Records
---
Amino acid sequence: MSISEFLADLTNPDLAFLPKALLIAVMSSVVCGVVGCYVVLRGMAFIGDAVAHAVFPGLAVAFVLQGSLVVGGAVAGVVTAVLVAVFSQNRRIKEDSVIGVFYVASFALGVVIISQAPGYAGSLQQFLFGSITGVPDEDLYTAAVTGLLLLAAVLLLHQQFVTVSLDRELARAVGLRVFWLDIALYVLVTVAIVISVRTIGNILVLALLVTPAATARLLTDRLGVMMLLAPAIGGSGAVVGLYLSWSYDLPVGGSIVLVLAGVFLAAWTFAPRHGLLARRWRRGGLEENPAPAGAV
Amino acid sequence: MSVLEVRGVTVGLGGRTVLRDIDLTLDLGDLTGLIGPNGAGKTTLLRSILGLVRVASGRVLVDGRPVRPRRSTVGYVPQRHEFAWDFPISVENAVMTGRTGRIGLLRRPGVEDWRAVAAALERVGMTDLARRPVGELSGGQRQRVLVARALALQPRVLLLDEPFTGLDLPTQELLTGLFQELAGEDKAVLMTTHDLLGALDTCTRIALLNRTIVADAPPSELLDPEPWMRAFGVGESSPLLKILKVM
């Protein structure tokens, strides 16, 4: 399918779900791209994965009760995130183990709940792998408003998040409430995942959080640039992925994630300073001009 | 004039008494070396001065008032490995994080904050590298960034935790010079160190710690081996004590 045909389909009133899907996919990618920068820099990818699982029982309850998926997922994700933060205070058990216990239990609860609903297999698949059809208008508004609030929160808390991420010990010494900032970050990650989970799917949403931010990290050493680049990469990936999905009748979540992974591989290879080729080239150059002995 | 007073501080962690009845007073102009074996409670003492561990009994006073992390001007330089050096941030922005507590929630750094950061970088001789990503710095430069980050609060008390670990001798010498100058600029500097010889040579005071303060005096008055044997739990023939004969 050519791009002009894709544009025609986007404006075709009979295919009204398509522009809605595009909008929500782009919004999700932008929000996840920004929040994902903290996730990547703090090595929290496992937490991101866990949150994605944890929102599941909320989605299932909302689905069974015909309520708002966004609200249901947010409540479940936040409750689990807070439980993990509280239980991690016991230093005998490491945080990743606590996460392993709570988030998978949460996911299991979701599976049990949704098995009670009629049409169990179909809805389960939709949750796990995403779907572009049937996004209600109110979900679109909720996602837009939540996304904007989330970006505002990031802007306001950025200095604090950076301080804690750089050095927790100093952050405590200068009087930051590290525990509450951790909770705030978990909540932001949860919200970003919840507004994305419908289109992309529960399993694949992690890629939206991690891949664009990791790609951006390869391309820059400046945090500000990284936090603009990641949502740009994510947003473009969503557009291209949806286009491919629509043209070749592929699952939308899978298409977007594969496009993003392709961009990541390209950056990993060709990035100007940290890419494979640049490092090879630099190493070659260094052998010709060895560093003076004792250089610090 | 004393700017920091630790009076009868006892700290328990996980049911064990880690520090017992600590008395320590820091005067402006002092460069004090805090020396003791591993597990003596050196870092815990620094953390209790900062108000980061609960003190079971006793008091810590800065300028005569109880410590409070957000208010008191105690500059802290944690060990270098606490810092995420792979984080994509410039030197000046890293130094700015020292002021985050003062900037407060929901606000961004203002003119005064940037001025303090510039002055701190100037003080440690890192102005030229202000925009360099922290990951590209050498060990000595990294230590300077951490000192600048503490200085960004314009503290009168500076606490340094093992500032020399993993640094070569010329770098240690440069940093020692910096710490001596800072002490001379109306500050009280307290540093933990494993470099006994260096501490005896450059510090104005030595505090020997092993769960409690074993001795606290100028180096010239600490040439008797007895307190060292008690602090480190070693016998008379320990090679450690030969350092004292050199002094």
---
Amino acid sequence: MAFKTPLYDEHVRLNGKIVEFGGYLLPVQYPSGVIAEHMAVRTGAGIFDVSHMGEILYKGKDALANLNYVLTNDFTNLKIGRIRYSVMCYEDGGCVDDLIVYRLGEESYLCVVNAGNRVKDAAWMKEHLFGDVEFKDISDDVAQLAIQGPLSGEVLGKYTELPEKYYSFIETTILGKNCMVSQTGYTGEYGFEIYCRKEDVVEIYRELLKDERLVPCGLGARDTLRLEAGMPLYGHEMDETVSPLETGLDFGVKLHKDFIGKEGILNRVNRHRIGIKMIGRGIAREHCDVYKDGELIGHTTSGTHLPYLKGAYAMALVKEDLPAGTKIEVDIRGKRVEGEVTALPFYKREK
Amino acid sequence: MKTPLELKYSKSHEWVKITGEHECEVGLTDYAQDSLGDLVFVNLPEVDQEAVKEQTICDVESVKAVSDVYSPVTGKVSEINEELLDAPEKINEDPYGAWLFKVVDVEDFEGLLSAEEYEKVVEEEAH
């Protein structure tokens, strides 16, 4: 059975094409189409329903110690009002999930996790709790919107103050409803995410959409945008068989501290995540074999035609780190098509 | 959704424009392009390639997925619409103008659907 987010009826009303993702019924696109939605975020502003994401609270004297033990990043110097990315690992170094952590107060933190992993994550976190900590999965009470694109600040700024810095947040109100607004996103673009009570989200969503510059965007554009920005997605660039270092998330792994999976991670650095630009005719998708000089070196983890860059790109996990410019071949449905290793991210916004 | 009356259709969502006793043009229907979404890549058959009824002959790709195109008739490919190789979005914009390939030496046009019959197929599929 699939869940509906509080905005389900809005997506249907907007003629969204509904699919199941992470256990939720969500629009993959609206009539405007993936390309138009993608371009709206790169050049204007788009709005996504991301209410399917999971939210988990840690509160108490030992909240910090718990997070530092169960997650790979170090939160010791994370200030109130700031956010930090992390991975959560199994003992053997494989990834349970990736997530972002908000420091809400002196002793309280909010973890935002992938929808499809939420139950598994909560069980894993709970299993490893220690000391004086209160743990709560509040996912079912919280709705989340993402407003992304160069015009997102202008659109959202009509209703609320905005957090000034990337990966920071403020507590505020929109239409008199309590919200948390963070400067975060999964598109590689300037943008914000709003957290509110699920009862309040329909009113906020409808009000925001009165600004015609804001284009409703679906999961299709969310995927092409994150891929263009070189961002990994759980289940593709990482899973329980891949360590965060293998998939290039070194910045989210702090080896100076002790945490679950540290040894496992160190014992397994066999692969590297690379970016590929297709040169020959063809679109590499996920699970295509990658060859260098005729030798199988790995496989693609995501790939499609990227609307802003207007070309076929893929990410791959391969057994050696290859410099940009290296010629490789990708097996696309039985045909070897030429590609070239390209630095990640494929797209980086100008600041 | 448009379904021009003068064309014939296949259950796999290709349209057939009969241009001579043994000749036709083949393209993708409005319903097909709408279901696929923005097309970004087209693989066309080779000229002189054999076309076999109800068998894969080429494919089209949207941002999300690859979809096979089935030949609605048996015959020989005589021409391909090379313009689409650089502009696959023409299939979305004008599905009945953007023919994919032409077939000659067509054995017969039996079993193809009328516009009315095809609309019923689509209706059933949509439910």
